[in-house]
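Query structure, 86 tokens:
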């Protein structure tokens, strides 16, 4: 596993039959364990979502800061319409 630690813990959860079949197939064709496939999938999911949430929190902090600069919706729309018209 890419980031597996020396300590792992068992975890039980339910998945749909099609998801289970996809995990089984991917494990088989990559010659990895189902645990490896699931761990990698969870790590990727968490990485993406943590990155996205952090970006949102950073943007909100900037927007909430004193002197934050906002663009008027109509101005932004006019700029995009001009670009599309070219």
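Result returned for the query:
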């Amino acid at each position: 596993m890419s980031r597996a630690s020396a300590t792992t813990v068992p975890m039980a959860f339910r998945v749909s039959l099609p998801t289970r079949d996809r995990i089984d197939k991917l494990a088989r064709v990559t010659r990895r364990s189902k645990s490896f496939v699931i761990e990698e999938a969870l790590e990727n999911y968490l990485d993406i979502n943590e990155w996205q949430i952090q970006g949102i929190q950073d943007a909100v902090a900037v927007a909430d800061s004193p002197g934050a600069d906002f663009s008027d919706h109509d101005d932004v729309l006019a700029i995009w319409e001009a670009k599309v018209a070219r």
